Amino acid sequence: MSGSPILSVRDVQVSFPVGGLTTRSAILGVAGVSFDVHRGETFALVGESGSGKTTLARAINGLQHVSDGSITFDGERIDVLGKSGMKQIRRRMSMMFQDPVGSLSPRMTVGDLVTEPFRIHGTEGRNLRDEANRLLTLVGLPADFASRYPHQLSGGQARRVGVARAIALNPSLIIADEPTAGLDVSVQGEVLNLLNELRERLGLAMVIITHNLHVVHHVADRMAVMYLGRFVETGETEAVFAAPRHPYTAALLSANPEPDPDRAHDRITLPAEVPSLLSRPLGCEFHTRCPWAQSICTTAQPPSGNVACHFPLEPGARPPSKKVPS
C-alpha cells in the first residue's frame, strides 16, 4: 500500500520477570516482531493460545510495557509515552477486549457504556443521548437498547455494544481481540460484516487478534502467524491461504474445519505439546513439532523474512511420512 502506515511496529520485545527472591530471569512473551498497518487496512495476528497475540496487542495499546523495539502510531512514537500521553493516543486508538459481556460494567446502561469514552476524555458540547442513539444505529441496534443493562443482552448484542463504544471518538485504529469469541457461527458472520462495513464507512484501520482462521479469511487484507512470540509467516491473506510456506501455517490451515470430507483427510497432525517459553528450543523453535525438520533446523535459526523457515514449503507439500488423521 502507498503512503505512510498508521501503525508501525519494529523489533518489539515484551519480557516478563520470572524466578524467586534469589534467582531472577525473564521470558520473552513477544520476541522481536515487526509489521505495518495502513489506513483502511485490516491486519490479522494468528496463532495458538499462548503465542503472544494478546500480549502484542496490549503492548501496542500501551497496556503492556515494551522491553525493546519501537511502536509508532500516526507518525508519533508511543512506546515511550507515559499514562497521560497514552490517554491522548487512546482517543484515536480503541481496543475491543475478548469477553463481549464481561468487558461491560454490569452497573451501567448501554447508553452510559457507549458514551463513556466522551466522559473519560472530557469531550464537551455533546448531547450524550443523541450520541448514544447515533452509535447504536451505526452498529445496528435500536435506540431503546440504551436503557438496557449488559445482562439483558445476547452475546452478539453485547459485541455490537463493544463496537459502538470502540468507535465513539472516531478513532483511526481499532484493535479487536477475538471479536467473535463465544458467538454462534451465524452471529460471528454478522459481527464480521459489521466490522467490514464500519471499516469502509469510517476509513478505519484494524488489527484483529484471533485463532479462528475463518475470521482471518473473511476480514483480513494481510496476516501474520505467531509461534512462541515470533512471526513465522507474514503476507497477503489470500496468498497465505492459497499456498502457506511455513510448516506451522500449513498445519493450522489444514486443521481448519472443512465441510469437504475428502479434504478433511489432508490434515497435518502436529505433536500437541508446545515448548515452554522458559526453555526455548535451539535453532528453529518449531523444529520439535515440525514434520519437515532436518538437522540444520535443530541448531541454526532460520533466516528472517516473510517466512522464517530453512525449507519453505512448495504449494501442496505434504509431510515426508504422512500420519493417519485422528
Your description of this structure?
- With 326 residues, this protein is an alpha/beta fold.
- The protein folds into two domains: 1-92 and 173-265, Rossmann fold; 100-170, no CATH class.
- Helices cover 28% and strands 21% of the residues.
- The chain is built from ten helices and ten strands.
- It has helices spanning 53-60, 83-89, 110-120, 128-138, 155-166, 185-202, 213-219, 237-242, 247-254, 261-264; strands at 7-19, 24-37, 42-46, 68-73, 76-77, 93-96, 173-177, 205-210, 222-227, 230-236.
- The strands form two sheets. It has a six-stranded mixed β-sheet with strand order 6-7-8-3-9-10, with helices on both faces.
- Helix 3 (110-120) packs across helix 4 (128-138), helix 3 (110-120) runs parallel beside helix 5 (155-166) and helix 5 (155-166) runs parallel beside helix 6 (185-202).
- The longest helix is centred in the middle third of the chain and has 18 residues, at 185-202.
- The radius of gyration is 21 Å and the shape is globular.
- The two termini are 42 Å apart.
- The model is unreliable at 322-326 (pLDDT under 50).
Side by side, the strands of the main sheet go 6-7-8-3-9-10
Look at the structure and give the mean pLDDT.
Answer: 89
> What's the main sheet like?
6 strands, mixed
Contiguous helical run count: 10
β-strand amount: 15-25%
How many domains, as an integer? 2
Q: Give me the count of strands.
A: 10
The helix/strand order is EEEHEEHEHHHEHEHEEHHH
| CATH level 4 superfamily of the largest domain | P-loop containing nucleotide triphosphate hydrolases
SS-based class: alpha/beta
Unreliable spans:
322-326
Question: Helix share of residues?
Answer: 25-40%
Rg on CA atoms, Å? 21 Å
**CATH architecture annotation of the largest domain:** 3-Layer(aba) Sandwich
Oligomer: single chain
- The shape, in one word, is globular
According to CATH, the fold-level topology of the largest domain is: Rossmann fold
How widely separated are the two ends?
Answer: 42 Å
In the CATH scheme, the class of the largest domain would be Alpha Beta
